[in-house]
Amino acid sequence: MIMGNQKPAWLEAIYAEKFFEGCTRHETAKKNEKNVLCLDCCISICPHCITLHRFHRLLQIRRYVYHDVIRLEDLEKLIDCSSVQAYTINGGKVIFIKKRPQNRQFKGATSYCTSCDRSLQEPHIHCSLGCKVDFVIKYNKDLTPYLRACDTLQLGPDFIYPQDMIIGSRNDMTPNFELCHSTTNFDSDETMSSSSGSSGCTESTSMVSSEIVKKKRTGYFPCERMSSYKFSISDDDMASSMNRRKSIPHRSPLC
Fold first, then answer.
1. CA dihedral defined by 73, 74, 77, 81, rounded to 10 degrees?
2. What is the pLDDT of residue 226?
3. Fewest CB within 10 A of the end CB: N or C in the chain?
4. How far does Cα 199 stand from its chain's mean position?
5. Integer Rg of the chain from CA
6. Positive or negative: CA dihedral 63, 65, 69, 71
7. What are phi and psi of 87, to 5 degrees?
């Protein structure tokens, strides 16, 4: 349990860990930037590492104006975010993690950050999560009342998983489904009538063979009819049609 001015381990990890850098565990993989924080292990991970932490609390870290941010909806499950100014990104509100000192203040501003003197909108008095945490520890001496119990925390629906993870999940098929796809062979008649257990496969192949295909300028023909029609043409007719040339055009006499 956190007592006094001590910070929880996950909060320390948010400040210490570096995000949006290549994962050393998956150096050769695509999209290996570390944009997730495991609250139970207190380390930053990439999307390819999620399978090893799928039962842990995961917090997605986002990027906005070259700074790390967290969605307000997720952060409020862990700590009180009142008085911290939020910004809207793609229809959702986010909060900056670290301080963002401002060199000069804007004229006419009525509210400023308590830690870095950044101009804010009323009634906010903190520009980031780090500013509020430092303010609470400095004046209240206790961060416990602001922390919230969170047993489960999953990634949002907009999180982009790697393609190999999606393909891997699709490989978990039933034996009947795998059998149906493995025995679908249009070049072999033995496979089509191998066993009665693949009746579903024969039905699918017959449906495919009877599909209607479009033939240019001649309407629609089933595959079977088109194949019989194609082979009924003799070789002499085909050769004569290929060697046929256009006649010499007749020009009108000169006046």
1. -60
2. 43
3. C
4. 38
5. 34
6. negative
7. -125, 150
